[in-house]
Amino acid sequence: MRNILFFIIGFHCCTQFVLSCTTFALQGDSGLVVGKSFDWHESHGMLVANKRNVFKIAERYHSSDDPVEWTSKYGSLTFNQHGREFPLGGINEKGLVAEIMLGPSEHIDSSDPRKSINELQWIQYVLDNFDSLPRFLSAIESIRVSKVFASVHYMVCDANGDCAAVEYLDQTIFPHLGPLLPVKAFTNDSYSRSLLKLRRYIGFGGRKRIPGGARSIARFVRTASLLQRYDPAQDVFDSASTILHSVANGGGQWQTIYKDGHLVFTEREGTAGTKKVEITKLDFHCLHPVKVLNLEAEISGEVTNQFEDYTDALNAEMISRSTLTPAEIKQMLIGYPSKTRCKEDANAATAISQKSWVVHSNS
């Protein structure tokens, strides 16, 4: 059975703004659904259809970095605000989903000798390289995250329904999975602290009522409660939407649902409506132009055939709208895609310098 991906993104504006994200997964009769509520103060973004067989070297931001090199095995569809190759989440053609959230992770010290990658490009690396959670877990410890933007953590799920909440604690990667992931949800606190707080609430051993509000623990508890009450006989898509609406709060908000082989974007409050993309119809051949879709375009419905050719100008315009990114970092983000090469070109690997640019050091 082919995997279908539904990706719903909804955007709405409020006068009050909270930086918060919630990711969760629930198992329906037809397969796993992963939902993501992305709250941020910037509403711009584009979808990128990333190619297979592309050689890449992770961007080098610190003099201590020893960037990892790889060739993408799988095509993917990602949501990007900070430039092509630096996504905030996405899914690959094998159904593996990776999502990022702000969190208290302790990223690995620069003296660690392992190959390095920054926290956003980590998402692309995972989607490029892995088709299942076991394969991801067997290989991801070989690299370290070199923080550039913020402390973050991740949730990764595969098409088989296996998920992991991934943190960096005590200078090492720590994936919560199996019995260590009793609630398939993650917000902006550490997973262990979220579980500890959950035990205070009705339905989980405590007496406190299920809370409202935008705080991380409140959103985790509400999500856990709704997941607990979920009946597989119910429509899994509607149930995921209910959870997303429960955790939604101000700023620029995108809501995402991945389900079964299609990708759907829903813009809320006066925007164009639902945008639906079918991954199986995307072209992942690396000798063909990279395709992108501006999420602010006034289009709706099935939009798979409305992607346009990627250009450096489109990338630069999107990156310029990221108000918190320093100017020197923006220039690196803008220039990075030109340093990737399709491996079907015999000169691909030698065309890229083995040393990426260094903008600043930790010294």
Q: What does it look like?
A:
The protein has 363 residues and is of the alpha+beta class. The protein has one domain: Penicillin V Acylase, Chain A, CATH 3.60.60. The protein is 19% helix and 27% strand. The protein contains 7 helices and 21 strands. The chain has helices at residues 121-129, 133-139, 191-198, 216-229, 236-247, 312-320, 327-335, and strands spanning 21-28, 31-40, 46-50, 54-57, 69-71, 76-80, 89-92, 97-102, 115-117, 143-145, 152-157, 163-169, 172-176, 185-186, 252-259, 262-266, 274-278, 291-294, 301-302, 308-309, 341-342. The chain has a 9-stranded antiparallel β-sheet with strand order 13-12-11-8-7-6-3-18-20, covered by helices on one side. A hairpin with a 2-residue loop joins strand 1 and strand 2 (31-40). Helix 4 runs antiparallel to helix 5 and helix 6 runs antiparallel to helix 7. The chain starts with 20 loop residues before the first strand and ends in a 21-residue tail after the last strand.
CATH superfamily, by name, is Penicillin V Acylase, Chain A
Write down the overall mean pLDDT.
85
CATH architecture: 4-Layer Sandwich
The stretches of 5 or more residues where confidence is low (pLDDT under 50) are: 1-18, 346-363
State the secondary-structure class: alpha+beta
Rounded Rg: 19 Å
List its salient traits:
disordered C terminus; 363 residues; 27% strand; disordered N terminus; alpha+beta; seven-stranded mixed beta sheet; globular; Penicillin V Acylase, Chain A
Helices and strands in order:
Blueprint: E1 21-28, E2 31-40, E3 46-50, E4 54-57, E5 69-71, E6 76-80, E7 89-92, E8 97-102, E9 115-117, H1 121-129, H2 133-139, E10 143-145, E11 152-157, E12 163-169, E13 172-176, E14 185-186, H3 191-198, H4 216-229, H5 236-247, E15 252-259, E16 262-266, E17 274-278, E18 291-294, E19 301-302, E20 308-309, H6 312-320, H7 327-335, E21 341-342
Parallel strand pairs: 9-10, 17-19
Antiparallel strand pairs: 1-2, 1-14, 2-15, 3-6, 3-18, 4-5, 4-21, 6-7, 7-8, 8-11, 11-12, 12-13, 15-16, 16-17, 18-20
